[in-house]
Automatic annotation (TrEMBL), chain A:
<feature type="domain" description="Dehydrogenase E1 component">
    <location>
        <begin position="14"/>
        <end position="309"/>
    </location>
</feature>
<dbReference type="GO" id="GO:0006086">
    <property type="term" value="P:pyruvate decarboxylation to acetyl-CoA"/>
</dbReference>
<dbReference type="InterPro" id="IPR050642">
    <property type="entry name" value="PDH_E1_Alpha_Subunit"/>
</dbReference>
<keyword id="KW-0670">Pyruvate</keyword>
<dbReference type="GO" id="GO:0004739">
    <property type="term" value="F:pyruvate dehydrogenase (acetyl-transferring) activity"/>
</dbReference>
<keyword id="KW-0560">Oxidoreductase</keyword>
<protein>
    <submittedName>
        <fullName>Pyruvate dehydrogenase E1 component alpha subunit</fullName>
    </submittedName>
</protein>
<dbReference type="Pfam" id="PF00676">
    <property type="entry name" value="E1_dh"/>
</dbReference>
<dbReference type="InterPro" id="IPR001017">
    <property type="entry name" value="DH_E1"/>
</dbReference>
UniProtKB/TrEMBL annotation, chain B:
<keyword id="KW-0786">Thiamine pyrophosphate</keyword>
<dbReference type="InterPro" id="IPR033248">
    <property type="entry name" value="Transketolase_C"/>
</dbReference>
<dbReference type="InterPro" id="IPR005475">
    <property type="entry name" value="Transketolase-like_Pyr-bd"/>
</dbReference>
<keyword id="KW-0670">Pyruvate</keyword>
<keyword id="KW-0560">Oxidoreductase</keyword>
<dbReference type="GO" id="GO:0016491">
    <property type="term" value="F:oxidoreductase activity"/>
</dbReference>
<feature type="domain" description="Transketolase-like pyrimidine-binding">
    <location>
        <begin position="6"/>
        <end position="181"/>
    </location>
</feature>
<protein>
    <submittedName>
        <fullName>Pyruvate dehydrogenase E1 component beta subunit</fullName>
    </submittedName>
</protein>
<dbReference type="InterPro" id="IPR009014">
    <property type="entry name" value="Transketo_C/PFOR_II"/>
</dbReference>
Length: 319, 326
């Protein structure tokens, strides 16, 4: 498998975009400039970007409440993402969705989801469309370790398997469903083990290594595209920050968090790129600075946007 | 217009067949809708015409039936999903309420979710508390859903066609105790717009507003009362969302009296909403008596047939309510 420089740098940039976008959101949230709730995926960037890299531009995804990385992976516009989080009318959902509901149907992003496990059935239905219309497109259905304990997981995976639907179930295993660790909440060691119940392949990879994630996803996507049906791809990773803003981290130790920060997926990928002479430290610094600038521009775009007018309040309930 | 005498069930089937012939994006999915023909035989024969691709048996998985319908709808198909009994919509509520109903609004108007969730509702079959409910008030409460409750073969066919052609999630509650009741239905293609009530019987003394099987009971009651010189107007809203307030208000202005009849439990039922709509309208000044609700008791539906009958309004209950008010 050959991945050219341009591809790898695109991933690197998207991982940086995700990191800087969310760091900015975190800072704005602390200042009260972004309201409601927000779920950040800092530390998990490699899984979101490595997996979506295995898709064609017109393939589809369903995402989760912690889905900024997957949006960016699916080529979302950072400006409109930031504007949406600030509740502006130039945001992806005209300020009516916020962080948990960013969708970009033209680019195949069928939406993040505020309900844990809410995306499974939608992904299965979207995959049914692709199968019935013979489009050749594949759906990636992102979910977390916690969602695998929802009933919707079972219904959707069983149906996808018996109908051999072109969908890949992408588990971001970040070790915790809010405060409850996988070992306390889940009867199997790996979420991918559950694939056995549905007669589908299940693979667990290092979710902090975008290349391993990409390779595993690509194999599953190709299998789905060729009509052989769904798979589970699980990436083991870690959420550095709290579940949401109310999290005091009572359920885990500082040492554990620090140990995972030492395994930063972005740092590790940078070192890989430099070590393999794909880029120099200087190039890396330039890409990093460029990614930061993109977020500055996204903030400017969002700040220039206006809040949706009250006349839009009752619009778009029905088609 | 050439008319044919067909059952309610046949009318549902014809609507699905005709729409599936017209539009290749329309398909049916649900439990036992294929070779079995549906638990009530509604889709009998459709598998033979359309094949397994478009008449899809699903596992017993109501959550993913409704959710996959939403996912298929948002990506370009027009699914008709059958929930075997309306009671089982409880299992599909996340898919329906949090997902399908909300997608368009929370995505800023980008999504269209053209799906129909068909389900038989109501009591009268001796099937007890988990196969007999009338849960329409829950659904009416959810912005983003349309809610249809046809009572006759003519209405069910014309409204199902509109539901299938609509670009929103439509909950289509079929009146199971009239599945085998016959009525005249045009042989030509027709569709009934949403939000247009039907005056099933014109009268001048009292307005009876009824849904589902209660339309039939109200019409029977009206015939009994006619012999006593009481002229009852029976209004069937046909769709609860959107709701045709105008027809009802006009009728109440004419008669000055309103009785609301539904099978669902009185507490939190759609009747309270209807009463409030009238109280907030210009018809308030024309009311000669308090609005009366004749509705199901606030209990689960019991098994024993006599108890079951007593749990929901019967013809006599409607007759008595009218006598009390006029």
């Amino acid at each position: 498998m050959t991945l050219n420089k341009e591809t790898l740098l695109n991933w690197y940039k998207k991982m940086l975009h995700t990191r800087f976008f969310e760091s900015q959101v975190d800072a704005f949230f602390a200042k009260g400039m972004i309201h409601g709730t927000t779920h950040l995926s800092i530390g998990q960037e490699a899984f979101a970007i490595g997996s979506t890299a295995a898709l064609h531009a017109d393939d589809l995804i369903t995402s989760t409440h912690r889905g900024h990385g997957e949006c960016i992976g699916k080529d979302a516009d950072l400006n409109r993402m930031m504007a949406e989080l600030m509740g502006k009318s130039n945001g992806y959902c005209k300020g009516k969705g916020g962080s948990m509901h960013i969708a970009d149907l033209e680019k195949g992003n069928l939406g993040a989801n505020g309900v844990v496990g809410g995306g499974f059935a939608i992904a299965v239905g979207a995959a049914l469309t692709q199968q019935m219309k013979k489009t050749g497109k594949v759906v990636l259905c992102f979910f977390g370790d916690g969602a695998s304990n929802e009933g919707s997981f079972h219904e959707a995976l069983n149906l996808a398997s018996i109908w051999k639907l072109p969908v890949v179930f992408m588990c971001t295993n970040n070790h915790y469903g809010m405060s409850m660790s996988v070992s306390r909440s889940t009867a199997v060691a790996n979420i991918a083990d559950r694939a056995a119940s549905y007669e589908m392949p299940g693979i667990t990879v290092d979710g902090n290594d975008p290349i391993k994630v990409y390779e595993a996803t690509l194999a599953a996507v190709e299998r789905a595209r060729s009509g052989e049906g769904p798979s589970i791809v699980e990436g083991i990773t870690y959420r550095w920050l709290g579940h949401s803003k109310s999290d005091a981290n009572r359920y885990r130790t500082k040492e554990e968090i620090e140990a995972w920060k030492d395994r930063c997926p972005i740092k590790a990928f940078e070192q890989y790129l430099i070590k393999n002479n794909i880029i120099s430290q200087q190039e890396s610094d330039e890409i990093t600075a460029g990614a930061k600038d993109d977020i500055v521009r996204a903030v400017e775009f969002a700040q220039q946007g206006s809040y949706p007018g009250i006349e839009t309040l009752e619009e778009d309930v029905y088609a | 217009m050439t008319m044919a005498l067909i059952t309610y069930k046949e009318a549902v089937r014809q609507a699905m067949q005709e729409e599936m012939r017209r539009d290749e994006n329309v398909f049916l999915l649900g439990e036992d809708v294929g070779v079995y023909g549906g638990a009530f035989g509604v889709s009998l024969g459709m598998l033979e015409e359309f094949g397994e691709e478009r008449v899809r048996d699903t596992p017993i998985s109501e959550g993913v039936i409704a959710g996959a319908a939403a996912g298929a709808a948002v990506t370009g198909l027009r699914p008709i999903a059958e929930i075997m009994f309306s009671d089982f919509i409880t299992i599909a509520m996340d898919s329906l309420v949090n997902q399908a109903a909300k997608m368009r609004y929370m995505f800023g108007g980008k999504a269209k979710v053209p799906m129909v969730l068909r389900m038989p509702g109501g009591s009268g079959t001796g099937a007890a508390a988990q196969h007999s409910q009338s849960l329409e008030a829950w659904l009416v409460h959810v912005p983003g859903l349309k809610v249809v409750m046809p009572s006759t073969p003519y209405d069910v066919k014309g409204l199902l066609k509109t539901a299938i052609r609509d670009d929103n999630p439509v909950v289509f509650i079929e009146t199971k105790t009239v599945y085998n009741k016959k009525g005249e239905v045009p042989e030509e293609d027709y569709a009934i717009p949403f939000g247009v009530a039907d005056i099933k019987r014109v009268g001048k003394d009292v307005t009876v507003f009824a849904t589902g099987v209660m339309v039939h009971r109200s019409l029977e009651a009206a015939e009994i009362l006619a012999k006593e010189g009481i002229d009852v107007e029976v209004i069937d809203p046909r769709t609860l969302v959107p709701f045709d307030k105008e027809t009802l208000v006009k009728s109440v202005i004419k008669t000055g009296k309103l009785i609301i009849v539904h099978e669902a439990c009185k507490r939190g039922g759609f009747g309270g909403e209807v009463a409030a709509e009238v109280m907030e309208s210009e018809a308030f000044d024309y009311l000669d008596a308090p609005i009366k609700r004749v509705a199901g008791k606030n209990i689960p539906i019991p098994y024993c047939m006599e108890l079951e009958k007593s749990a929901v309004p019967q013809v006599d209950d409607i007759v008595n309510a009218v006598r009390e008010i006029v």
